[in-house]
Design a protein that fits this description.
Structural class: alpha+beta
Number of strands: 9
Helix content: 25-40%
Radius of gyration: 20 Å
Distance between the termini: 55 Å
């Protein structure tokens, strides 16, 4: 953005928990003062559009190696339609004219993030095609953010580090900050003080809601998709042997930056029935 420019942008994302499409319409402003550039993000409107049962089943099938090329191709187009429709719903709810929206950033749905045992990222794939979104909405749409990061030698995840740095970096010259996000996969951004000379760093901390959601569904016999309000968790106590077994995973001893994904962090055998002692 140029100095003092204001830009309205829509962001679209479906995470590894597959709850729905998170859509946000924000106004981004940028100015330059005596302490350097300042970025501000103001949310105008936001909503989550739940996935319908049919598309959710399609998404979960693409998470496995059992999905055929033709199924993956159809899913890419179908999810693009859903992302486009979510953007149109958001625009209608917001009351903002479509012509005033500069662009749509479409993350899509990650269906595979290929990480080797030694932490090397070979490739990543998100579906929900930008061309479909653009044609459905009539708004310029960009995407393939993770693919671009991997192509440039990055890990492809987490992607939030730049935004954390621009919006949440410590104000004081001696202040340090760590920003933890617990999504399907958890990640942290480490923001050093401006006087330290240390570069910011971000990395995945391990599985988050993907394990919690799985356990909630398992315990409830499929009645729950997530642990609403932490009600189930409050009824139990930590099982030290299970915790130790999970923390013995080699991932946790790897040096950052590092990334992981749903395929590398499935529920361990010991957790297949969470009600077992």
């Amino acid at each position: 953005a140029k100095e003092d420019e204001h830009m309205k942008v829509i962001g679209l994302l479906s995470g590894t928990s597959v709850d729905g499409i998170d859509a946000a319409l924000v106004e981004i402003s940028h100015s330059v003062g005596e302490h350097g550039p300042t970025f501000n993000v103001h949310q105008i409107a936001g909503k989550t559009v739940p996935w319908d049962t049919a598309r959710k089943e399609i998404i979960f099938k693409t998470f496995t190696d059992n999905s055929t090329t033709s199924e993956l191709c159809r899913a890419n187009h179908s999810l693009g339609e859903a992302f486009g429709d979510a953007a149109l719903e958001l625009i209608q709810d917001s009351g903002v004219a479509k012509e005033d929206i500069a662009l749509i950033g479409n993350h899509g749905q990650t269906v595979w993030h290929d990480v080797t045992q030694d932490g090397r990222v070979t490739s990543t794939l998100q579906i929900g095609d930008e061309s479909v979104v653009s044609n459905r909405t009539g708004i310029t749409t960009i995407g393939d953010f993770r693919v671009a990061d991997v192509a440039a030698g990055g890990k492809g995840a987490p992607l939030i580090a730049m935004m954390d740095h621009l919006l949440l970096k410590p104000k004081g010259t001696d202040s340090w900050r760590a920003v933890q996000n617990i999504g399907g996969i958890g990640n942290v951004t480490f923001l050093p003080s401006s006087s330290s000379g240390v570069e910011p760093i971000a990395f995945d901390t391990g599985p988050g809601n993907m394990i919690i959601d799985w356990a909630a569904a398992k315990i409830s016999g499929g009645a729950l998709e997530y642990d609403r309000g932490g009600d189930l968790a409050r009824q139990g106590v930590p099982n030290p042997s299970v915790v130790e077994a999970m923390l013995a995973d080699p991932y946790y001893s790897m040096d950052p930056p590092k990334t992981t994904g749903m395929h590398a962090k499935r529920p361990p055998k010991r957790l297949r029935d969470p009600r077992s002692p």
